[in-house]
Fold each of these.
Amino acid sequence: MTTVQLLEIAHARSGDKGDTANVGLIALNPANYPLLVKYVTAEKVKEHFRGICLGKVERFELPNLGALNFLLHQSLGGGGTLSLKTDAQGKTYAAALLKMKIQLSGGDKIAIS
Amino acid sequence: MKTVRVAAGQGFWGDWLEAPVHQVEKGPIDYLMMDYLAEVTMSIMMKQKLKNPDAGYARDFVPLMERILPTIMKRNIKVLANAGGVNPHACARAVRAVAEKLGLAGKLKIAVVSGDDICGRIGDFVSKGHSLNDMDSGAPISKIQNRIQSANVYFGAQPMVEALRQGAQIIITGRVTDTGLTLAPLIHEFGWSFEDWDKLATGTIAGHIIECGAQCSGGNCSADWQTIPDLARVGFPIIEAYDDGTFVVTKHEGTGGRVDLRTVKEQLVYEMGDPHAYITPDVIADFTTISLQQEGPNRVRVSGIKGRPKTPFLKVSVSYDYGFKAAGTLVYTWPDAVKKAKAGANILRTRLADLGLEFDEIVTEVVGLNSCWGPLTDIDSPDIPEVTMRVAVRAQEEAPVERFTKEIAPLVLTGPPSVTGFAGGRPAVQQIVAYWPALIPRELVQPKLDFI
């Protein structure tokens, strides 16, 4: 079984909308987008952000950009001006997601860019 | 083929002041758009206007216009900016005064878009059955009605298109959408219909790509950031639009930064919700239809965009008094820096409790360890050289927050050792202005266009 950190195969950017953070996760090589779809599920992301994301995680697919968009609800300490967090806008959550590791199974292979 | 170049000059109020100057001087552009308004900016401006009836707009805009006016008039570059905040007429008068000083006022036509301020009409709307529910929580606005500081509708491109049709050189607006500042010139130049949803979606996504300035041309890019050249002289983005409904994202020759598929994709997903439905006052744009192609160095072609009819609503941004907050910090060093910071915070919390102070929330962070990612990185090691203890509090009343600010410095002599970083004095108490997003039927509010 191969373990891959998302940093090796993806890049990302995050932002805020009220108390919801969004993280866009983009395959560095579009050929690896199916791996993101298969392994980086909403459940896995919710587990990864335990203690930070207190609400649900929604996932949207953008195959045209080789990207997934995650909405992490209740993740910013109330959001906007209310939040007491240093990162009240979730600007660093993109990097936090890139820290996540996935374990490839069976015949799944990483395309080298 | 007809080409129209729309350049981004500011991605927010406080962005790099040299960027708009470079945009008008370092190569060809037809329009300069500048986005100044964040959600809470309007309430700050409202407070300024209450103290001074001539204030309440982005003051930086006026000296900037003084710098670039001679160039934009010589080269006939049109400027669109939502710098007007809650007082766009005063902003326009200040720009005109600057133009007179430069001897350029005679030929200058400044348009003002207003009508977005509905603060005085909220009671009327509520009594007519428009509950202006919070889009996130669903709560009715009556809950906060006596604490409202500002309320503004987001207008789209339409009033700015009308201003361009009437020959405006500079358009100063109150609350219009960031994307409308880019879409309006494209509608005007290409004669797009206000019901050509694919074209409106194309111009809207062009606007989304450049509305945060250099964030699509190499700034804040997580892909290969160390290889992005010369960010010190980063080129802000330019949309080069064509009448076939496609556009290219680029930047001026000789500037720093990078425009490629990765930098553009990162900006596309920034602050994204449901990618199938990016809703603006002008159109619903579908981000899953975007097609990107690198067609040369620092040139990304965008095509294939689909849109759907606009909704019957406009978004309203209401700001209201929420309470008070403050954050205090101290620096602790090796050995056991993290243990010391956590112990310091616990002593502080105990003292706040002993004083009987009540807070809605108290947050402890160890900067250098867990302030951004909480439990994801909360791994103590005695060898960490230094960390910052950060404790923040929030309350409805000012008094407990005020008292909190006096409890940080005493820790230096009464808590864990090897502590510093208190020279800045007591932290300031900040008044919290919260944000209430709502929807209103669009026919209830009409934009107003004047020339100054």
Amino acid sequence: MSWHVDHELLVHYQGGRLGDTASFSVEAHLVGCAPCRRLISDAIDPARRDQLWAGVIDRMDWPDPRRAERALARVGVPAHTARLLATTPSIRMPWLLSMVTVLVAAVVASHSFGEGPFLFLVVAPLVPVAGIAVSFGRSIDPLYEVGLATPTGGFRLMLIRATSVLVSSLAVSMVPAVLLTEARWMVVWMIPALAVTVLTLLVSTVISVSAAAGVVCTLWLVGVAMTELGASTRYAAFGASAQMTFGGLALGSAALLMIRRQSFERVGHDWKETG
Amino acid sequence: MNNSIELEGVTKRYGSVHALDRVDLTIGSGITGLLGPNGAGKTTLLRILATVLAPDSGATVLLGRDPAMSDDRTEIRRRLGYMPQEPGFYRNFTVFEFVDYVGILKQITDRSQRHDEVRRVLDHVDLTEVARRKIKALSGGMRRRLALAQALLAHPDLLLLDEPTAGLDPEQRLRFRAVVSQLPNRPVVLLSTHQTEDVVALCERVIVLASGVVRFDGTPMTMTEAARGRVWTATEQDIGALLSWRMGDGKFRHIGDPPAGAAQAEPTIDDAYLLLAGRDALTVAS
């Protein structure tokens, strides 16, 4: 070892006046030199040293937030809420990519068959429904029972995750939506999407969430098919009167969901008794 | 502050099966053991106390509050620590992240305070060394301790532990006992177990549950005494006994009525448990 920290270097380092390159050099030296470590340690105010050390430990224990959490923090979401949102299974990258793939395929297939945006409009509202189906319940969430026994569990956690699902579904659906030829097709699926999502949550107060998603998906597909077959114009299921109907359905389902919210506070329909 | 739990006529059914049948209990501070065979209703009782399951009928008051009321239930959950029988984990989380996440669910929103609390409970269960390890890399025993750690967050006034020693080796079980016996502030601790050794080592009170009914409620010592006069040793096996087995010295130990030529033996808590749980316990034993 060719050099050691002298008094002048110590004073500058301690005062933060050494500059990055020289500071890194000192720190690299400290790793292998116990006498210099002691010298630096003795020279620093113990309270500040403890505070710095606690910061280092905390940084090691709690590494950089995940990508989704960083994105949420940038729009002002508190770190603890961002963590709850980010644990929603349906906002993980593999899920989002698979949904984008499905929607792009729907757009391409629609164009190939000369159907315009029809297939996309049918599939897009089902993306948040599928997201809901993989975000709640005993069979999906390994922490379901522990979470339910906490003050955030139950209805509050469901709302947090449903919000997460809706926002992420909206975002992924906008990716293939830009391939559509007319701007109005980029938005007409949104109110139906909101309606079927809230309806899924409402039905999940009676049957399991996966069964609820299946029932609502079926109702949606049958409803769209019947509307289109019975109407004199194309896209009647996404027209103005249909939008009003879906808006009313969303509001009515939300009201009933509030009335039924207690059902989220107890173990669900997919519960199996074990003892 | 009311630190007790009170149940009156609590009943829970699954179809035609009574998981709990008109259970009356009052449990105060200290460690209470809940003994019973599989299917006795222990887990159902703990889930009702953890506010995740509603009884079909009967009154429940936890820490002075009614879990059927929304505000009361939230307040109970703030003061509750719960380790379920089969705790689940986010396997890609580190140990620290996992407990931190439960801390968020428990509404410890100040990050610094929460992290201090996470370190405290991890230290308490001796998991500090693996705090940055992913959960999927932990042994079964470590996962049980991790499940216990999350239950200890925020110094709960009501701590519910469902089969916490299941699957632990003897050393880990001793470590668990040390942790639970050293909890500060004497919370209400209800410990569901098959292990009579846990009850003797830890509990000042024991409740035996079988077929959804409370069969015994008292101290481990009085429970053991309840078997006095019902335990025998003999040179021949008695097929009429409730249970009979050959011991290391070649003699047979009998629980129940005395066989011919038998000598009365000093009872243990295991004998008392077998007598109290009756045929249900034997189903498990076999």
